[in-house]
Design brief:
This protein is an alpha/beta fold. The chain contains 14 helices and 13 strands.
């Protein structure tokens, strides 16, 4: 065989190898987007844990679901929401957390500090996103706001001096109130510190605070009855998993005793509290959705700083106020972010 013929064949072989390599590279390049698309198209599961009945609490979480949709997570297409009800009872809280974690979703959304704490007892690996009015560091949910350091992060409705402002608003909206009750949940994170801070802020606003504590929900009816015997016409509801989950029942019990409820979240005013003032819960849910989006796309909760919500809202339920015989000044109503008539 001539050297020219041999060189020709060697050249053809090398050319074939190069063409196969090129086609292989091109094929991989074409295939990679399809593989990535297939991975992106996988339906993620997000467990959503409500304090009360999911049907009652669903409306307050609309900002979360709406923000998730705007970020590209469409229910029934690439995300499935596994809803769990806490039934407003601590006895069921551990069961709910265990059931949700046991299904191994891609992410768990805990809508309160108590729920998040219960979930973290069940798993140290599944990503947990929370929205809480309790200090997440004091509640043991994260190591620090800037560096959570574990499998949980979320949105914190920083109270700041909100409760002091709330007492000042009570004096303006209900000037006849000089003494008022306050209900504290012994099971709530950092309840002792919260009680001391509330009592100090009430004194600064010129209000005498009559505090009552509870462990079981059944005590609420007795507390309101005692408030009525003490001639109290208003009472503050402080953060509580047990109470927010059964807020409609709480509002009904207060109304039966002619007591105007004052609270820290808009859901309370919607349920029947005369006035609520605190961090914007809707904004917290939207921030939580942004964090959930990042985690579902590969980020680690331990590296995502807790976001603090410092946007506040004042909501007045003028319909309930009128039914209880209170006349809230028109100028005050004009200052409210929302008035329920």
């Amino acid at each position: 065989m001539s050297s020219a013929s041999s060189c020709s064949k060697d050249g053809e072989m090398r050319g074939n190898v190069r063409r196969r390599s090129l086609l292989g590279a091109l094929g991989a390049g074409l295939l990679a987007p399809r593989l990535l698309f297939a991975q992106d198209a996988k339906t993620r599961t997000v467990a959503v844990l409500f304090a009360g009945d999911s049907e009652d609490d669903e409306p307050s979480l609309r900002p979360f679901f709406a923000k998730m949709a705007r970020l590209g997570w469409l229910e029934g297409k690439n995300v499935a929401y596994d809803r769990h009800s806490g039934k407003g009872t601590r006895e069921f809280l551990a069961t709910m957390a265990s059931t949700a974690a046991g299904r191994e979703p891609d992410l768990i959304y805990a809508t309160s500090a108590s729920i998040a704490a219960a979930v973290l007892k069940e798993t140290d690996s599944l990503p947990v996103v929370f929205a809480t009015v309790a200090d997440p560091v004091a509640a043991g949910l994260v190591a620090s706001l800037a560096k959570p350091g574990r499998n949980a992060t979320g949105a914190y409705l920083a109270s700041g001096d909100a409760f002091a402002k709330r007492f000042a608003l009570v004096r303006q909206a209900l000037p006849q109130v000089k003494r008022m009750g306050a209900v504290f949940d012994r099971g709530a994170p950092d309840y002792r510190g919260r009680r001391a801070a509330h009592e100090k802020a009430a004194r600064a606003a010129g209000l005498a605070l009559v505090s009552a504590e509870f462990t079981n929900f059944e005590a609420i009816a007795k507390i309101f009855a005692q408030f009525r015997r003490d001639n109290l016409i208003a009472a503050e509801i402080t953060p509580s998993f047990a109470l927010i989950g059964r807020r409609l029942e709480v509002a009904t019990l207060a109304a039966r005793n002619d007591i105007a409820l004052i609270a820290h979240r808009a859901e309370w005013a919607e349920a029947g509290a005369v006035l609520s003032y605190g961090a914007d819960v809707g904004e917290a849910h939207r921030r939580a959705a942004q964090i959930a989006d990042r985690i579902l796309r590969g980020a680690k909760p331990s590296a995502i700083a807790v976001q603090q919500v410092r946007k506040y809202e004042l909501v007045v339920n003028n319909r309930v106020a009128s039914a209880l015989g209170f006349h809230i000044p028109k100028a005050f109503l004009q200052r409210a972010h929302r008035v329920i008539n």
